[in-house]
């Protein structure tokens, strides 16, 4: 079971959280302006890196807040967690 | 007293407290402190089981949890039978019944032993080679026979009557293993005041110190040092010392699972739980898990009476039991010399055979000879004599090239063998640490850590006592952030050995049965064959030969197997690598894993405030998510069909009362609440008046229906949202996600009120008349309170949000009241309805009534791939809205393409035939197989109000097929149906506005 | 007066407790009828209705008759005597004024269970995965978390013996109460 540092509550066990998949995929401001291909890309295409991955997590059974995390998918080590909307301080090689 | 092999003194046992248990029905007497294995040996019982594949007689190999052979079924009373217990770790106690396994008709005379004679058939991979032909034999002959013969032990049949507990625990330092290194680590950590948990699998902490009778630590006998260490740990409040507790799984972020055995060793367990699962989250972990001795691989090395050398020493020193009177030690290293000395000291006849040449040996050789023990250096073991008990060892001189000299028989009744030591790196490996191969000790040892842990002592390949203590101390101190280090003095430990894979032999290879994996009956020859047949990866060799795949996971066998593979491939051991260690380290009961989550605590059973009323009025219940909902209310003698027919009629003709409390409810509040609703639902919300309701439909971003429900505007900045019962949590999470991550600028707050409001649905033409006398502050007239309106007031003096809504097509109200008042209001409404023949109805009737009206149920008519247009609800989409969640997807090419499945009604030619939900639909039943499936039935009922069966279905281009015929599969063949509009009752919708 | 009348009639989901069913020294006592409010506000200011809004997340203030637990950056759970059920939301609303906020009555949604005794934390840890040690979870701590398969809010109050309030949703209360009772039996 992972130990995840909620930005508001500190270290909490994984069971209190829900993972929301890849982070930093903003909903387009005007979806209607997107081509079918662009929209399909936005909806369905996600990175699946071996290494550092930026993910969305929600402390569902805690403060209820969504936040982002950098997790190494090989070691499961968290490099950092940071508020939704913010940028991580570590760099990632992940670009969708 | 019996126990002819019990020594007269010594050991950590209490000879004044006898214990009696049975083994295969025979009473065995031991003493307090015995394991079942030591008590059996005290009585000269060596034959304790038959092997898995060849049914060879097997005895006790080891004293610890690595025991591969002595597997017993342990019976602690009715419902308390566990198979595959290692005799070496089951504590002897009064009343225990133990049984050997894997034989018929008896342990002594086993028909299955014929397999041993057929061993040429049962070579590695025999499964894949032997049972290939003819193909049809697999189902009818091979598999049934194999199933009957396979398996180890018998699973218990009765429910487990024991209780099991679970505990989450946190500590700064978790120490696994209470041998010298673990104790030193725990002491060092404990002295810092940090929280320490020390877990050890044995009944008594101490590890190897428990059988250390000659060594001294810091000038005191080892046992005294142990007592002092335990007393200190015991006196510290910051230490939790857990004996009988196995750390079996090392998971992410220092989450370590421990299995504590609480009552199995007690004759009268009382009410305590049998076992407890500890889920420990540790800041730092110290692994002091010790090491396992390797057997020597020689012909018939599995004969009862052949033990590991250190295990002989343990039985002598810790249990005061002589495993034999004439013992030959066979070894390729120094540690067995200590065992030989102790055996000699116990007055037994002892000799020792060492594969190493004279000049390879250390001071141990002089010491042994000085004690008057015959030592044959440079000798190999050709094989063992004896069947159900070893009677002698055939040895021969062997040079380094493996050439053997003249055979010599050493008569004996016990052999102590030692092929060196293997650090127990299982937990380290589970923690994803990287192992490194250490050539000097021929072992894989912990290398790079992946988590906050460190290993110490034998687990790290350190075998000298003083070094183990120092290493443990350093690990404990470092783990607790202390700079203090202690020095230890201790008697030197005899270490050092020559790695040997299979003992040199000149015997006919065809006749050699030299076992590597005792539990899965894998011989050196099997492994050689696998390599010859082309297997290179150790993972493949493992699966092909099954070596290391038994319940012991190859604790005693893995290194020998690896070594043999490396030898056959003429490569080095590290290049072969090791197989993956997986939890659990030793077998764990299902009870421990399940813990208290049984019966009423298996899952929360959610009930409404009206549940007890429904129960006392005869309701039958169904599970909806975690909820128990009243399904129907049968009167005496009524079937489901009868009750539902009566309930359906009652609602349409009079009035029915229904518990809708499980509906999800969310209070959406804030200045931007309407804008938020506008973005999430397909409907328009900005202009909805306060006090009015709207049926809302919500999509996921992919355009498919997520949920639906009626929403009321309570105030300009407040909406009372309802969701489906099963969708409540999902919808709230969906809303929160968008609110927090996409539109954090919106000033909106979401609060679940599902359980604040109980909901009493009153449906039918008489509904208004029933509640009129009970309602306060609300004008119920149709003009003042039309369909799809919501008013706040009181009912029975209780505040209510009264909705005029209908999921039946009748005049209806949904009375929201605070939950703790719901039962009183329900009873009052029910009483007020009695003159009108009010009828309580359940979810089945609710389903039928809504289907008569063609109302969809999310999750029944939809399945996550259904758009609003597919179910005929595209008219609800607010055309003027530029965007809402899912809107863009509604013009995706595959969503606008022809051929999508659309919601239609179906009526069968035979009005009495009720189709099966999920049944497939085709246009031409005569077409060749595979037929083209057009869709499936989503809902199907007998409709009492239509006097016939009705069904809803999703059918490709269904709306264009109105009036046409299709065919639906039924258990009796195809049934012809006509496609109709899905509204079967009151298609003009007049009744709802009554 | 209707309101005073109906409040006395609240039918709570958990019956009256046995003193110490498990003989474990751990007392598990369902709370009586209380008023509960969920307060949501983003820029709260220091206080409202006399309740502090500037305390750290995962802390509780006040006493048994009137307490406020901060569960998140913009979320508070308030408990009070039943008599305050109407006055308290009104006072909150008045003090918060034009600040965007939500005050939602959840008195009937939440059920309280008090767990006390020297080994109360051990019983809670049968299902709660948090570190309940003195350093990590001192008196005055409050958080949403899990107990077995149910979501709870766990509040630790000050007192001579460890005293915890477990709050759960109404329909989970039978499970939570049963879980705690079983846990107390196994807390030895």
TrEMBL record, chain A:
GO process annotations (BP): tetrahydrofolate metabolic process
Gene3D superfamilies in the cross-refs: Folate-binding superfamily
A Pfam family the protein falls into: SoxD
A Gene Ontology molecular function term of the record: sarcosine oxidase activity
Stored NCBIfam families: soxD
UniProt protein name: Sarcosine oxidase subunit delta
Species of provenance: Methylobacterium tarhaniae
Automatic annotation (TrEMBL), chain B:
The species this protein was found in: Methylobacterium tarhaniae
SUPFAM superfamilies for the chain: Aminomethyltransferase beta-barrel domain, FAD/NAD(P)-binding domain, Folate-binding domain
Record keywords: Oxidoreductase
Residues of the GCVT N-terminal domain: 610-881
Positions of the FAD/NAD(P)-binding domain: 172-431
Protein name: Sarcosine oxidase subunit alpha
Family membership noted in the UniProt record: Belongs to the GcvT family.
Any one biological process term the GO annotation gives: tetrahydrofolate metabolic process
Residue ranges annotated for the SoxA A3 domain, each copy included: 512-593
GO MF term (any one): sarcosine oxidase activity
Gene3D superfamilies: 2Fe-2S iron-sulphur cluster binding domain, sarcosine oxidase, alpha subunit, N-terminal domain, BFD-like [2Fe-2S]-binding domain, FAD/NAD(P)-binding domain, Probable tRNA modification gtpase trme, domain 1
Xref: InterPro entries: 2Fe-2S-bd_N (IPR042204), BFD-like_2Fe2S-bd_dom_sf (IPR041854), FAD/NAD-bd_sf (IPR036188), FAD/NAD-binding_dom (IPR023753), GcvT/YgfZ/DmdA (IPR028896), GcvT/YgfZ_C (IPR029043), GcvT_C (IPR013977), GCVT_N (IPR006222)
Residue span, Aminomethyltransferase C-terminal domain: 901-986
Tree of life domain: Bacteria
UniProtKB/TrEMBL annotation, chain C:
Highest taxon above the source species: Bacteria
Name of the protein this chain belongs to: Sarcosine oxidase subunit gamma
Originating organism: Methylobacterium tarhaniae
